[in-house]
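User: Here's a structure from my thesis project, written as structure tokens. My advisor, Dr. K., wants to see whether a designed sequence matches the one we expressed. Can you design one independently, without my sequence as a hint?
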């Protein structure tokens, strides 16, 4: 059995598409081979760019999660300070005094203390400051709320 063999060269006229990948017909009608592969250098550069971008993205995500944790503690501390300030505002003027509470007594063991400082600025005016303290990232953190309370009756 004899098979028909295709000729090694095919004539392609200018302007007609070629069916062979990687073959381009020049202006003079001569076929030219093109390089369509990816070199090793291109692969390495692409891998380095992908790895670098991924590393930066993961680092930014971890920074965001740490910041989120710190923000959560700050919000809780602000709420604890505001809670104590509201209690003081609903207390008789003569009964408002300085004091301190530990973290476990206020219901949050992650906080060290809640300190109330009262300063008499006039006979009928007190400066009240509530400060919540906690330790985070190896350092002492604080959130404070301050107001004036007057004896207007």
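Assistant: Designed independently from the structure alone:
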């Amino acid at each position: 059995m004899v098979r028909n063999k295709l000729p090694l060269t095919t004539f392609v006229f200018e302007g007609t598409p070629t069916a062979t990948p990687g073959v381009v017909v020049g202006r003079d009608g001569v076929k030219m081979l093109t390089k369509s592969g990816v070199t090793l250098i291109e692969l390495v550069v692409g891998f380095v760019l992908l790895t670098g971008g991924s590393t930066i993205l993961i680092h930014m995500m971890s920074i965001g999660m740490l910041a989120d944790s710190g923000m959560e503690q700050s919000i809780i501390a602000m709420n604890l300070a505001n809670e104590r300030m509201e209690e003081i505002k609903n207390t008789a003027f003569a009964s408002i005094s300085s004091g301190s509470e530990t973290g476990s007594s206020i219901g949050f063991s992650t906080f060290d203390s809640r300190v109330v400082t009262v300063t008499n600025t006039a006979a009928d005016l007190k400066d009240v400051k509530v400060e919540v303290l906690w330790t985070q990232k190896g350092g002492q953190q604080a959130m404070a709320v301050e107001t004036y309370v007057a004896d207007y009756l």
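When you compare it with your expressed construct, this may help: The longest strand covers residues 111-122.
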